[in-house]
Amino acid sequence: QAKKLGKNTFQFFTREMDQRIRKRLDLETRLRRALERNEFLLHYQPQVELSSGRVTGVEGLLRWCKDGGEILVPPREFIPILEETGLIVPVGEWVLQTAVAQARQWELAGLAPLQLAVNISARQFYRESLPEKIHTILEQNGFSSSRLTLEITESILLQDTGESLSKLRTLKDMGINIAIDDFGTGYSSLAYLKRLPIDELKIDRVFVEGMTEDPKDAALIEAIIELARKLGMKVVAEGVETAEQLDFISRRGCEKVQGFFLSRPLPAAGVEELLKAHFPGGEDRVGWAGRRR
Ligand code: C2E
Ligand code: MG
Ligand code: MG
Ligand code: MG
Q1: Per residue in 148-165, pLDDT tens?
Q2: What's the CA-to-centroid distance between 239 and ligand 2, angstroms?
Q3: Which pTM was predicted?
Q4: EAL domain location, by residue (predicted)?
């Protein structure tokens, strides 16, 4: 009896596993074709500088329009696969090229100058040719390196300190800015903050989420802001969703915010519209902050 049950259970699991493997392989096959089929696109999420109330930057965020259809697959469902398969290298290069070209176009159109943030994954970061690739893209587009920020995560820095230091130095020497994304969630020691040339810390959304209810989250945010200030780094708060959170964070001296409360990630045309509507002639004010999009 037990043996029979065991066997059935086993069959059940294999069938389920089989389906999962199939689904995964199917996704992988589709992702391999996605670049040449032009199925990737970028959305851009505005970053607002609190002192001026202006949109001073955008973060490029990858989207996949699977089979060219209407539905955008969320990054958490396909970026891990891109990373495991190494596809993130060519796709990441496409992201850089596309985002830089777009930012340059906005510059030429006379929109307020924007800092462009692009996410870089570990596989991409440790490619020997990354600085050279970036150099070429910046040069071809006539975009200044000082306007580019690379967002890396603490997990990248866990892997190899020697190599990451020289890599970051090279990028820094090119005039590129470095931000630590999802700061405070990476289980890494803080020692790297002393050794590595880092310009900006992005406070992870988990702390922002809890800060108005949980004094511990509030304490962590205050400590991160203080830490950054003392180390001469800027701070961006991610995932600001409410007026209360915005108020809380701005009182504590955080420089920049990014979150649904200010704006969701938008297609390029949406960014243009937003900038033109809210900052005609380059005018200031965060008065539009209360407007959800
Ligand atoms: P991330 O770099 O930390 O990007 C911020 C994520 O938080 C984005 O999710 C954004 O839509 C979301 N977000 C922003 N404000 C809010 C808010 O107020 N509330 C909530 N709930 N979420 C908010 P998204 O676009 O789904 O991207 C998820 C992650 O995928 C990114 O996290 C990044 O790690 C990765 N990713 C996205 N694009 C790229 C890319 O081009 N290259 C690489 N390597 N990774 C990317
Ligand atoms: Mg990011
Ligand atoms: Mg983040
Ligand atoms: Mg993230």
Answers
A1: 999 999 988 887 678 889
A2: 11
A3: 0.91
A4: 24-279
**Residue range 124-135: mean pLDDT, rounded:** 96
Q: How many residues does the chain have?
A: 293
pLDDT tens-digit readout, 52-82: 999 999 999 999 998 877 889 999 999 999 9
Question: 195: which 2 tokens?
Answer: 């050794």
Predicted local confidence at residue 8, as pLDDT: 65
Q: Which long-range contacts (CB under 8 A, 24 or more apart) does 6-11 make?
A: none
If 0-12 CB within 10 Å is exposed, 13-18 middle and 19+ buried, where does residue 198 land? buried
ipTM of the complex: 0.98
* Structure token pair of residue 217: 């989250």
Best mutation site among 238, 262, 293 for ligand 1 pocket (most ligand atoms within 8 Å of CB): 238
What is the rounded distance in angstroms from the CA atom of residue 32 to the CA atom of residue 11?
31
Find the ligand nearest to 184 CA. 3
In this structure, the residues whose C-beta lies within 6 A of any atom of ligand 1 are 45, 61-62, 74-76, 79, 88, 92, 95, 119, 121, 151, 181-182, 205, 238-241, 258-260, 265
Ligand 1 atom nearest residue 241's Cα: 18
How many angstroms separate the Cα of 52 from the Cα of each of 25, 117, 230? 48, 19, 22
